[in-house]
UniProtKB/TrEMBL annotation:
<dbReference type="GO" id="GO:0005102">
    <property type="term" value="F:signaling receptor binding"/>
</dbReference>
<dbReference type="InterPro" id="IPR018143">
    <property type="entry name" value="Folate_rcpt-like"/>
</dbReference>
<keyword id="KW-0732">Signal</keyword>
<dbReference type="Pfam" id="PF03024">
    <property type="entry name" value="Folate_rec"/>
</dbReference>
<dbReference type="GO" id="GO:0038023">
    <property type="term" value="F:signaling receptor activity"/>
</dbReference>
<feature type="domain" description="Folate receptor-like">
    <location>
        <begin position="26"/>
        <end position="200"/>
    </location>
</feature>
<dbReference type="GO" id="GO:0007342">
    <property type="term" value="P:fusion of sperm to egg plasma membrane involved in single fertilization"/>
</dbReference>
<keyword id="KW-1015">Disulfide bond</keyword>
<dbReference type="GO" id="GO:0009897">
    <property type="term" value="C:external side of plasma membrane"/>
</dbReference>
<dbReference type="InterPro" id="IPR004269">
    <property type="entry name" value="Folate_rcpt"/>
</dbReference>
<dbReference type="GO" id="GO:0035036">
    <property type="term" value="P:sperm-egg recognition"/>
</dbReference>
<dbReference type="GO" id="GO:0007155">
    <property type="term" value="P:cell adhesion"/>
</dbReference>
<comment type="similarity">
    <text>Belongs to the folate receptor family.</text>
</comment>
<feature type="signal peptide">
    <location>
        <begin position="1"/>
        <end position="19"/>
    </location>
</feature>
<protein>
    <submittedName>
        <fullName>IZUMO1 receptor, JUNO</fullName>
    </submittedName>
</protein>
Amino acid sequence: MPLWWQLLVGLSAVMPTRAGDKPLNVCMSTKHHKAEPGPEEKLYVECSPWKDNACCTASTSWEAHLTVSPLYNFSLIHCGLLTPACHQHFIQAICFYECSPNLGPWIQPGVLSGQEKISGVPLCREDCEQWWEDCHSSYTCKSNWQEGWDWSQGKNRCPAGALCQPFPHYFPTPTDLCEKIWSNSFKASLERRRSGKCLQKWFPPHQGNPNEAVARLFASPAPVHKLSCTVTAFYLCLTFLF
């Protein structure tokens, strides 16, 4: 084999590629998720959009709606009752997390817990904006609801010195709410619903699941990088050729 051809083959061998092997139609490996998705005819209220193909059971969907859910013993009313619209957004978010089989491209292994988690799930712009708007007059005492609570009495309480304030105090923008509240599990997308490039945390059951196509888009293989000679590499090629 000519020396110049060996050089080109060697350069192509080190060019980066991606296999695009992100899983589709899967459930996270956690305490409450099913081993694999399937029909669940009796999912409760806000979890019902996933009844045709769900990662949650009917029991989990019921427990997701309780004010202090036994799923995580977490109280949504740590600073008093949320407004009904605000409360609904949180129940929808819990259902989305527990029931959706379309989170595969964003599933990551849990470092400490040994259970899987999600990171950077792109929520549609309207989902973040409406969630933030509907929680404007509700109260909380933390911007990160995933850690830092006082669990001394068996359920989450505000840590010492954390004052209950209206949501905008801890979440000045819709992006802050979507991304901070569960340690970047969600990402505030600039894309809108029906763009095919973001996920909806809830959708009308009769319209079908729009998140399936979005998951396929994000799971599809990235283009394979073809061989390209930079200026430096080009001169290196010439050095060996001549």
